[in-house]
UniProtKB/TrEMBL annotation:
Alphabetic keyword roster: Signal
Species lineage: Bacteria, Pseudomonadati, Bacteroidota, Cytophagia, Cytophagales
Superkingdom per UniProt: Bacteria
Annotated protein name in UniProt: DUF4292 domain-containing protein
Signal peptide: 1-20
Organism: Spirosoma agri
Gene3D superfamilies per UniProt: Lipoprotein localisation LolA/LolB/LppX
Length: 239
């Protein structure tokens, strides 16, 4: 009887052990699908331009990254430019659509929620593993009619779920909860149309929702540059 009980306990423990190992396997295969850990780590800067559609409006956007340090995004809409910048532990923004043309310091909660913005979103699982952030495999489920692994990732700014294609290990999408104005709000994104760029696999199409966006934005990359020279002054707050 005792031997049978030990065997039963061992059989119950095996799936849990396999489950824990599988989370690492999924992320490792995802990183390989991106181009490999060395390729991702070699990316020090990135900038790309996008055409965007929001509730029938056509917009353009440019995003500039110094990986893990600085980020700038400029969106042109209806003849106006909205700018959001993260530079180290500081951030600022200009939003004429909200009635102001002067640069304003980013609120503390918005700055915390945007910390991961200094990392290109399509590579964030690779950065999470490199930075030893905690993650776990929630399970396997359908995501946009595809079999996907659901990876739960805990970041300083919130908890996020990343959905990795079970067939090719590309990132299909993500969703998460962030604190904005003292309230928990959901943000999400889907990724598709992967193309090779300098040995990396990059999604050219994304659909994004965020607390500050009235609806979802569909964005398509029109130009991308990896490891180009970026003038650090673009992150300076105007005086």
């Amino acid at each position: 009887m005792r031997k049978q009980l030990i065997t039963l306990v061992a059989l119950v423990a095996i799936p849990a052990l396999t489950f824990a190992q599988t989370a690492d396997e999924v992320i490792n295969k995802h990183i390989a699908a991106l181009g490999g850990a060395d390729k991702v780590a070699a990316v020090k800067t990135m900038d790309f331009e996008q055409s965007m559609s929001l509730q029938g409006m056509e917009l353009t956007s440019k995003s500039t990254f110094v990986i893990g340090k600085s980020f700038r995004n400029d969106i042109s809409v209806m003849g106006q430019q909205i700018t959001n910048v993260i530079d180290g532990d500081k951030g600022w923004m200009v939003n004429p659509m909200a009635g102001g043309t002067a640069a304003q310091d980013m609120p503390a909660d918005a700055l915390k929620a945007a910390k991961s913005a200094t990392e290109p979103p399509m590579f964030q699982l690779a950065y999470a593993k490199a930075n030893k952030l905690p993650y776990e495999l929630v399970g396997k489920e359908k995501y946009n009619n595809k079999d996907a692994f659901n990876i739960k990732l805990t970041r300083p700014e919130g908890v996020f779920n990343y959905f990795v294609d079970a067939a090719n290990y590309q990132l299909l999408g993500m969703k998460g909860m962030v604190n904005m104005g003292g309230q928990q709000s959901e943000t999400s994104a889907t990724y598709s149309d992967y193309k090779p760029v300098d040995g990396l696999s990059v999604p050219y199409t994304s659909e994004v929702t965020a607390p500050q966006i009235p609806g979802s934005i569909t964005a398509k990359i029109t130009k991308i540059n990896v490891n180009g020279t970026i003038d650090p002054s673009v992150f300076n707050k105007p005086k």
